[in-house]
Each structure stands twice: as C-alpha cells, then as structure tokens.
Design goal:
Blueprint (H helix, E strand, L loop, with lengths): L10 H4 L10 H8 L4 E2 L11 H10 L12 H11 L6 E4 L2 H12 L5 E5 L5 H8 L3 E5 L15 H7 L4 E7 L11 H10 L5 E5 L24 E6 L12 E5 L1 H10 L7 H11 L2 H24 L3 E2 L6 E5 L5 H9 L2 E2 L1 E2 L8 E5 L3 H11 L1
Parallel strand pairs: 1-11, 3-4, 3-5, 5-6, 6-7
Antiparallel strand pairs: 2-8, 7-8, 9-10, 10-13, 12-13
Helix pairs in contact: 3-10, 4-10, 5-6, 5-9
Bound molecules: pyridoxal-5'-phosphate (PLP).
C-alpha cells in the first residue's frame, strides 16, 4: 500500500482541487453582525416567498420520511409553468449538481468540452471531474463596443470538433453579467452538430429584461441535443435549500436520471420550491427591485469614475482599472463582501451583487 493515500484517487480527481469557499462567512456574520454586507454570492436580498417558508413549516412533521424520489409535485408544477412535459425535467440539488451530472453522463477522457473563457466556474470543474479535455474559448475583448468579456459564439462554434460532447454556455453569464440574444443563440444552435450536447445555464433568466432575450426553452422542440438548467437559488431566493432543474428532450433527461442520486432533493426543498413557483408576485417584485437598484448602483459607480459592464443579472462586474486585491481587502475589513476575479484572470475587476439599498450604500461608502 502506498504511503500517500491521496495518490489512490483516479486521474480526473487528482487533477482537481476542493472548492475554495473564499471567506468564512459564518465567522464574519459573528464578527460584523447586521452591518455585514454580503455582496459576494448573488443572493436575493428580498428573500423568498412567504408561501415557501410556510410550505417548509408544513412539511416539517414528515421530515422522518424520505422525500419523493421523483419530485413529482414539483415537476408537475414546473411542467405547467414552463409548458413542457414532466418527463422533460430533471431535478437537482442545486443546478450545480446537474451541471456536474451532465458532464459525467455525456463526457469522458476521449471527449472535449467547450466553454467561454469567462464562463461559469463550475464548467471547468465538471469537465475535469469527467476526465474530459477543456476547450476554453477566448471571450470578446475587454473594450468590445457592446458586450465586453461576453461569449464569442462564432469562436465557440468554431472550437467544436468531432470529439466535442458538451458545450456549456451560461446566459446571462456569471461572472460577467453579459448575455447573448435569442437570435444569436439560435444561429449558434444551428451550427452545433447533433452529436454535441448544448447546456444553456439560465440561472439568472428571471432577472432578464432585454426584450431580445427570452429563454433557450423555445428551441427545445427543434434541438434534442439542447438542455436548459435553472435554479431556485437566485430570483426565488432559496439558495440555502439547493434546488435546480434541467429541461431537455426525454432522451437527455432519461440519461441524467440514470446517474441522479434517488433522493437528491430533500423534502423541505421540494415543498418550498413548489410553493415559490406558485407565488409569481415575489419573483416579479425581486425582478423590479433588482432593475431599479442595479441601475442606481451602476449610476453611483459611474459617478465614482468606475466602468461597469452591461448586466442582465443581479450583480455587476466593475472594472477598477487597477489591481482590485487591495481594494477588496479594504472592503472586507469594513464588512463588505464582494467577489474577487483574480481566479478568472480578471484581477482588475470585482463582481458585486445588487444588495438591499442599505447594503449598497455601505459598499459605496466603503469604496471611498
Ligand atoms: C448561481 C449559479 C448557479 C446556481 O447554482 P445552484 O447550484 O442552483 O445554487 C448556476 N449557474 C450559474 C451561472 C450561477 O451563477
């Protein structure tokens, strides 16, 4: 037996590092209390629907039972909401789990996986965990006229080879906030071979107000190789419960179901997500709040001479035009948590979630 048990891990896992949670948020909450401004994780400051909270309380007495392994009630509610068949939906312990599962189901060491340079951080991890080769496609330029750092769909289509099994594309994207229109996405889908699964991650779809962007769901009937993922973590404000879903052709969903752990979504999460879906008013309020507050925050940052990238999400990517690390450290000391971008090679940028007005004011005050 080897002296180093770590060497027993398989090749794909040896290439990975454990998730870096960044700051120790529980410790920071103790230290700063109510004045902590948590603007690092794109959570919804309005909180969830009261119906979701009531549904959790109602489900509590049954906590000793296993959850419904099919999530039948939530799937039925989602199917009505999205106008798809329940068999076209897979549920996940957050959409993160589904993004990982899709890689495990469709890619292996003989394949490549294509995503944008500034695509969501989970894409390279999912690729590496499946042992596949990552093809990271350069994004649009920093000074691009309309969509700086956005996805370069032409370059992404060109990067797809015969061995490419998956393309991951977040729309709108995290961490850039950028997006591609329905028309651009449709033209891209038409160029992708039927042997490549296209995963469109729509974690921020509920915040979108650009009429040129609706959802990739409309292209599902035409493209059986398309999968759309969404989450209850952002606009629905249920990040702590971990519920996401994937929508795709029955063929794709059936494959995901083979690898899905039977009780991956817990009973409280199932009940809360279903109730949240039944309260569209809360999502509408969250969207409206985010629109006005993001516009205000952007204006305030502009007034301080900072460049803010266009965003269709509940965060903004801010260009500080110099090393952001010391500024992030100062904000941190003042109890304002934002997300540094050095890991993406964007060391001059900070990603800042749109918080409550009080949190945003604390951020602006600390920036001075
Ligand atoms: C937050 C986020 C997710 C959602 O993750 P969950 O696991 O559902 O909480 C997925 N994709 C992107 C791009 C995100 O920013």
């Amino acid at each position: 037996m080897s002296a180093n048990a770590a060497s027993l891990a398989n090749a794909a896992t040896r290439a990975l590092r454990a998730y870096d949670p960044g700051h120790d948020l529980p410790a920071l909450r103790n230290r700063f209390g109510a004045v902590l401004a948590e603007l690092g994780s794109n959570e919804n400051p309005l909180g969830p629907s009261p119906h979701a909270v009531a549904a959790i309380q109602a489900a509590l007495p049954e906590i000793f039972r296993y959850p419904d392994p099919q999530g039948g009630a939530l799937k039925a509610a989602l199917a009505t909401h999205l106008r798809v068949d329940p068999a076209e939906i897979a549920l996940g312990n957050g959409s993160h789990e589904l993004l990982m599962l899709i890689a495990q189901c469709f890619a292996d060491a003989s394949n490549s996986v294509v995503f944008s340079e500034f695509g969501f951080a989970v894409f390279p991890i999912a690729t590496a965990a499946a042992g596949a080769r990552a093809v990271r496609v350069p994004a649009l330029a920093r000074d691009h006229a309309t969509m700086p750092l956005g996805h370069d769909l032409d370059a992404m289509a060109a990067a797809i080879g015969p061995d490419t099994r998956i393309v991951y594309l977040a729309n709108p994207n995290n961490p850039t906030g950028t997006w591609v229109s329905d028309a651009a996405l449709e033209a891209f889908l038409a160029r992708v071979p039927a042997t490549t699964v296209v995963v469109v991650d729509e974690a921020y779809q509920e915040f979108v107000d650009d009429p040129a962007l609706t959802s990739a769901l409309r292209y599902l009937p035409k493209y059986p190789n398309l999968v759309v993922t969404r989450t209850f973590s952002k606009a629905y404000a249920l990040a702590g419960l971990r519920v996401g879903y994937a929508v795709g052709s029955q063929e794709i969903i059936n494959i995901i179901e083979r690898l899905r752990e039977s009780f991956n979504v817990n009973s409280l999460a199932l009940a809360a997500a279903e109730a949240a879906l039944g309260d569209p008013g809360q999502v509408a309020r969250s969207k409206a709040f985010n629109l006005t507050e993001r516009a205000w925050l952007t204006e305030q940052l502009h007034a301080r001479g900072l460049r803010v990238l266009p965003s269709q999400t509940n965060f903004v990517l801010v260009d500080l035009a110099r090393d952001a690390a010391p500024i992030e450290a100062r904000l941190f000391e003042g109890g304002v948590i934002v997300r540094p971008m050095g890991g993406y090679g964007l060391g001059e940028f900070l990603r800042i979630s749109v918080g409550s007005r009080a949190e945003n004011e604390r951020l602006l005050a600390a920036l001075r």
